[in-house]
Amino acid sequence: MTTADIPxxxxxxxxxxxxRVEDLAGLVRDELESLLPAASVVPxxxxxxxxxxxxxxxxxxxxxxxxxxxxxxxxxxxxxxxxGSHGGATALAQRRLIAHYGVTxxxxxxxxRAEMDTRSLGRTSTGIExxxxxxxxxSDGILLVNRIKPHTDxxxxxxxxxxxxxxxxxxxxxxxxxxxxxRFADGLGPAIRSVAETLxxxxxxxxxxAILENAYHETAxxxxxxxxxxxxxxxxxxxxxxxxxxxxxxDEIDVLVCDRLGKNISGTGLDTNVTGxxxxxxxxxxAWCEGMPSIRRIVVMDVxxxxxxNAVGMGQVDLVPERFARRVDHRVTTLNAxxxxxxxxxxxPVVLPDDREAVLAAIRTSPIRTEGPRVVYVRDTLELExxxxxxxxxxxxxxxxxxxxxxxPEALHFDAQGRLQSPF
Length: 424
Description:
Elements: E1 9-14, H1 24-35, E2 46-51, H2 59-72, E3 76-81, H3 91-99, H4 105-108, E4 118-123, E5 129-133, H5 134-138, E6 141-147, H6 162-169, H7 172-181, H8 183-186, H9 188-201, E7 205-213, E8 219-225, H10 230-244, E9 252-261, H11 272-275, E10 294-303, E11 319-321, H12 322-327, H13 330-339, E12 350-352, H14 355-364, E13 375-378, E14 386-390, H15 394-397, E15 403-410
Parallel strand pairs: 2-3, 2-6, 6-7, 9-10, 9-13, 11-12
Antiparallel strand pairs: 1-14, 1-15, 4-5, 7-8, 13-14
C-alpha cells in the first residue's frame, strides 16, 4: 500500500443544538446569589472551590467568579484540585494540570491547595471507606464545581458531575482507588453515590455549580444546585447534557483518525460515548452501548499537551505512530488506569513508524468495500463540528439537514517524515 491508497476527503460541518451563555461571570454570580445568600457565609470562613482535570471551557472564568463572590461575602476562598489520582497523584502535577486551564493562585487571586493527604470518615453500609482531602476537611465548607456529562465507563441516573467530583475528586488518590475497587461488587455509580451521601451528611458541602456544555465545547448553562436536591437535580441535568453532546456523522465507520487524545478531552482520552468503545475491552466494530457508533479501527496521532503524558484510554486505540508513543508517560498513565481498576486502559496500541503508515495499516486491516473505505477524521472527540470524511461516505452525508459539505474532495497531506498535517 502507498499514500495513493489513502482516499480523498470531503470537509463537512455538523450542526448541533447550540444554547450558550454570553455573560459567564454574571451568570455564576446570579446562581450563587440564590445558592449561597450573604447571610449563609460566615465572615472569615475558609471555603474551597473544586476544579477538576477535565478541559471545561471557561473554567477559569467560572472559578474566579465564584472566588470573587465568596470573598465579597467575607470568606477566605481557595481552590482545591479535585481529580482523584490524576497527575500521577502528586500535588505538584495536579496544580500544573489546572494551570493548563488558566487556574493558578495568580489568576484566581487566592491560594491553590493541592495537598494529597486524606482522612477516613468511616465506611458506607456496603463497606466502602469514605476518604476526603485533609485540606477539604479542615475547611469551613466546599463549593463543588464540575461539568455534568455522560460517564465514559458506566450508565445510570447520575454519571459524571457534582456527585463524582465530591466522592472521587475530593477523595484524592486514596478515595479514587477505594471507590473503584468496589465497582465490581457494588457498581461504580452506586459506589460513588454512597460515598457522596456520607460526605454530604458531614455538612462540609455547601452546594454546587453544575456546568453544561454544548457540542461546540461552549458553556450552555451554569446551574446552582443546593445540597438538599443534589441527586435529583443532577439526574435532570444529565438528561439535558445527553441531548447536547456531539457525535460522529456516521454510525458505521471503518477507520476513525484522531489528531489527539488526552485527559483534558475525556477521562478516557477519547470519549467512549463518541467512539462506542469501552476502556475495559472492546470488540472492533461493536458498540459498547446502544446508539453509539461501531468503528473497526481507531488511529490517534498524539497525546495532548494539557494531558502531561497521561495517555490513559489508549487501550481503546488500535494504531499509533512513534511520535505518540514518545509522548506517553507510562508511570502516570498506569497509575491512573490501575486506580480506576481498568489496566486495559493503559495498554499500548500497535506502534507504526509514522502517521502515514498508521493510517495505511488501519485501512488495510478494515473491511474491503467496492466504493472505498469509510474513514472519518476528527481533531478529537470533543471538537466535532468540523470533520473530514472519505469520498465513500458522500452518499451517507449528502442531503442531510444536520450536515453541510464545505469543500473537497482533497487528499490528506503528509510531510517528508510521514507526519500528517492536521487540517484542524
